[in-house]
Amino acid sequence: MSTAADAPDILKRIVEQKAQRVAAQKQAMPLAEVESAAQVADPVRGFKAALDQRIAAGHAAVIAEAKKTSPSKGLLRADYNPAEIAQQYAAAGAACLSVLTEQDFFKGSDAHFRQARAACNLPLIRKDFVFDPYQVVEARALGADCVLLIVAMLEQAQLQDLHTQAQALGMDVLVEVHDAEELTRALRIEAPLIGINNRDLRSFHTDIDTTLKLIDEVPATTRLVTESGIATVDDVATLRAAGVHAFLVGEAFMRHPDPGEKLKTLF
Ligand SMILES: O=C(O)c1ccccc1NCC(=O)[C@H](O)[C@H](O)COP(=O)(O)O
């Protein structure tokens, strides 16, 4: 598997490692077996519906992320306990959770995802790097309610096909973009849920202006999520004033002794 030629290096490196893991996983558990597991998986919890509901009630909708480590920041949380974190997020009023499962760069695992989902009733996105239809079925078999598709690492036909496949399995899809060109590609597949990632994956610099600059290009019927680098009450106020009401936050919560308490102070 190779990523789009102009994808940032970090995505190329992650996908290279991931491709080896997916190949091994296919040997260990052939597609037919994963499909059977997906058929008897826990029913889908509506991810986008949970965001929409929270926003319709006049609140910000928070996708609270659990991640132990990130490529840009290294170790974020030594005492990483996904079940405990999920309970804290749920009690603090998160709309949905995001749990990293990527092993090599984020030190995530499928076990983390299972533990978090079993510990609360919220919908969860399986945060991983998806390029193979096998991974979409695998995500549903694991109990995922939503999967992430990163436009920067996918060809257009691949993006379209994976999106259609995930929706056919009943999951929502967060289609992630970083700039106007990627946003155009996300809109071309009529993605109902689009995340604008404020992290430049070449410099790792985050800037909420990335969202502010693109917001006018997003149709009102699309649910827009702003992702990354949201750290202060001012960030939240600025984005809400501009019409953004769904937020994906990881680091600011992970660095706090009680991630739920941090959520309550930010939102
Ligand atoms: O976070 C990174 O270093 C990173 C590097 C390469 C690809 C993706 C990366 N992050 C994934 C995310 O999108 C964030 O975990 C998510 O948006 C939350 O961001 P933050 O609140 O800044 O932790």
UniProtKB/TrEMBL annotation:
Belongs to the TrpC family. Pathway: Amino-acid biosynthesis; L-tryptophan biosynthesis; L-tryptophan from chorismate: step 4/5. One of its GO terms (molecular function) is indole-3-glycerol-phosphate synthase activity. Pfam families: IGPS. GO terms for biological process: L-tryptophan biosynthetic process. PANTHER family: INDOLE-3-GLYCEROL-PHOSPHATE SYNTHASE, TRYPTOPHAN BIOSYNTHESIS PROTEIN. This is Indole-3-glycerol phosphate synthase. Its EC number is 4.1.1.48. NCBIfam families: PRK00278.1-6, PRK00278.2-4. CDD domains: IGPS. InterPro entries: Aldolase_TIM, Indole-3-glycerol_P_synth, Indole-3-glycerol_P_synth_dom, RibuloseP-bd_barrel. Residues 11-266 form the Indole-3-glycerol phosphate synthase domain. It comes from the Bacteria. Keywords: Amino-acid biosynthesis, Aromatic amino acid biosynthesis, Decarboxylase, Lyase, Tryptophan biosynthesis. It comes from Spiribacter salilacus. The keyword Heme does not apply. The lineage of its organism: Bacteria, Pseudomonadati, Pseudomonadota, Gammaproteobacteria, Chromatiales. It catalyses: 1-(2-carboxyphenylamino)-1-deoxy-D-ribulose 5-phosphate + H(+) = (1S,2R)-1-C-(indol-3-yl)glycerol 3-phosphate + CO2 + H2O.
